[in-house]
Amino acid sequence: MKKYLMLLCAAVAVASLVTSCGSSRRATAISEGEREVNLIFNGPQYRTDKEYFRDSGIGVSKDIANAKKIAVQNVRQAIAAMVQSAVEVVVDNYAATQSADASDVIDGTDLEELGRTVVNTQLSGLEIVEEKAFSQADGTFRYHVCMQLSKDNISRAMSRAIDEDAHTRLRKDKEAFRAYFDENIR
Hints:
Distance between the termini: 72 Å
Largest sheet: 3 strands, antiparallel
Mean pLDDT: 76
Number of helices: 6
Order of helices and strands: HEHHEEHHH
Number of domains: 1
Low-confidence stretches: 1-25
Oligomer: single chain
Helix content: 55-70%
Number of strands: 3
Radius of gyration: 27 Å
C-alpha cells in the first residue's frame, strides 16, 4: 500500500509540475470585453532603418482633413525628435573624438545649433509611405499615416549648412565630419 501511495503521490507531483510549466507558455486569456487590436503600420517596413527615419501616427476627428492634420503633426514631431536626438549624439561623439588643441576642429555647440536648423528645415522633406482612413460608428474619422525622412538628405543638408556658416567654415574639416556623420547616423 505504501508503495502504491508513493507512486500515486509521485504521479500527481509530476502531473502538476508538467501542467504548471505548460500553462506559463500559454497566452493569457482575454478578459471579458477585451479584444486584440491590430496595429496599423507596425511591421518592419514601417520602422527606421539605415536609409530612413520612419514613424507612424494616428489622428481622430469629426473632420477627415483635421484627422489627417493631427496624424501628420504627431509623426512630424516624433521624427523631428528622432532626428534631433541622432544628430546630437553624432555631434557630441564627433566633438569628443577631436583633439582639444586642434585649431580646425568644428565646435560642438556650433554643430548642435546647425543640427537644430537642419532638422527644422528638412522636415519639409517628409514623405508619406502609406496612409489609411477609417470612418467610425460615432461619425468621427480615424486617420493613420506612416512617414519617412531620408537620412542621406539630412546628411547632405548638414554638410551644406556647415559650408554656408562662415563661423564654422573657418574651423572645420567638413569631409571628416561628413564621413563621421554618415557612418554614425545609419
